Amino acid sequence: METEKKTCKDLVEEKMWERSSQLEDLYDIIDDEEKTTEEKDEAFIQLNELVLDISLYRVIKVLLSTGGPSDWIEVMVDDEG
Question: Are 75 and 59 in contact (CB under 8 A)?
Answer without folding.
Answer: yes
